[in-house]
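In the current project phase, the collection of sequences with tokenised folds has grown. One resulting record follows, to show the layout:
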Amino acid sequence: MVLQRWPEGPEADPVLARERYDSDMRLAREALREVPRDMARDTLDVPLWFAHAGLVIAAAVLTILGVIFRPLVPALGALGLGTVFALVTVVQLIRRRGWRRALGDAYRGTFGLALYFVLGSLI
């Protein structure tokens, strides 16, 4: 059995241990508050060529699904992508981005993530 060495020594002071714990938890919570901001920024920071590839692959997959199944299946897929595109555009406009930037972010976010999900499902 391995004994841990505590910074306070073998007779750890409960008050100091609680202070250290509270300090560590405060730092962890502050770091977790930054994660959604970083994820949102990185998600919409997809290169344009990646979004173009996502659009081409999404169109190809929807076309193949239309040939194999009823036209309802690709229509639902296109409706889903259109809904995501519209939601991201609205969110970017609420964040007071201009129309041009909002549409660009929505395009990169929607089709960049579409490519990510398609490639993720293939692997």
